[in-house]
């Protein structure tokens, strides 16, 4: 057993890479604690610089299962089940497509796709989007499909789910609760899919998760502590700068 443990420790990334990954996770969950979103979409573009893509998506899944699902399900009684049922079929179909791409597609095109998606989210929120608009329930299928693909590939489909839910649900508490349950549901679905596909068979993922969980929790606690002490507009500006930098780094990695 000791020899097996030593072998797995030998397979872990170099100390410098671990420190970089730890910093990215700390920052991402600090943002999550401050803004209530952004853990995966701000961390994954940086994590893929030092860790394999499969390791990154599995690592973020395990962290989200432990932290985000529990935190987001606290107010599940306010969930809008009608909208949840509308978006689930598209999300399930997109998850299957995303899993197929994750397992079979080469890494570099996926890095490029991630970077372009992150930049598109930045442009949508800072250039295109002007005000909240009530949208048609027919968009549940395409937005659920896209959200499922990007959630399974990178854990970053949240913005697409938010576009749909924010355009359908006016009550902020119901919106937060519904998104929380949807995120928790996607995490459980990914857990089953990744297990069947063998993506969770690498023991080093669990070693990394054990190392990353305290860091993620510390970032979340720090973000909560700073929530009432810093300007929300200032936080948003910092988040968008980090997001744009992460998207650019993913595009560069995909093209290099």
TrEMBL record:
Keywords, comma-separated and alphabetical: Cell membrane, Membrane, Transmembrane, Transmembrane helix, Transport
InterPro entries xrefs: TM_pro_TauE-like, TSUP
Compartments it resides in: Cell membrane
Record membrane topology: Multi-pass membrane protein
Lineage: superkingdom: Bacteria
One Gene Ontology cellular component annotation held by this UniProt entry: plasma membrane
Family: Belongs to the 4-toluene sulfonate uptake permease (TSUP) (TC 2.A.102) family.
PANTHER family to which the protein is assigned, alphabetical: MEMBRANE TRANSPORTER PROTEIN-RELATED, TRANSMEMBRANE PROTEIN YFCA
Protein name: Probable membrane transporter protein
Species this protein is from: Candidimonas nitroreducens
């Amino acid at each position: 057993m000791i020899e097996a443990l030593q072998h797995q420790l030998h397979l872990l990334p170099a100390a410098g890479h671990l420190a970089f990954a730890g910093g990215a996770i700390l920052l991402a969950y600090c943002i999550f604690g401050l803004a209530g979103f952004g853990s995966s979409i701000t961390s994954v573009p940086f994590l893929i610089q030092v860790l394999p893509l499969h390791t990154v998506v599995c690592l973020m899944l395990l962290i989200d299962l432990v932290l985000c699902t529990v935190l987001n399900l606290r107010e599940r009684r306010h969930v809008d089940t009608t909208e949840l049922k509308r978006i689930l079929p598209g999300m399930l179909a997109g998850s299957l497509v995303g899993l197929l791409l994750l397992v079979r597609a080469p890494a570099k095109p996926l890095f490029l796709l991630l970077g372009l998606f992150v930049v598109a989210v930045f442009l949508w929120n800072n250039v295109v989007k002007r005000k909240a608009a009530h949208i048609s329930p027919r968009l549940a299928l395409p937005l659920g499909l896209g959200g499922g693909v990007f959630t399974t590939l990178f854990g970053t489909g949240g913005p697409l789910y938010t576009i749909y839910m924010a355009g359908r649900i006016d009550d902020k508490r119901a919106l937060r609760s519904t998104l929380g349950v949807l995120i928790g549901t996607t995490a459980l679905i990914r857990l089953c899919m990744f297990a069947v596909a063998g993506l969770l068979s690498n023991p080093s993922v669990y070693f990394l998760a054990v190392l990353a969980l305290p860091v993620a929790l510390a970032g979340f606690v720090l973000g909560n502590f700073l929530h009432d002490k810093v300007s929300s507009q200032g936080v948003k500006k910092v988040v968008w700068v980090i997001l744009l930098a992460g998207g650019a780094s993913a595009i560069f990695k995909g093209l290099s």
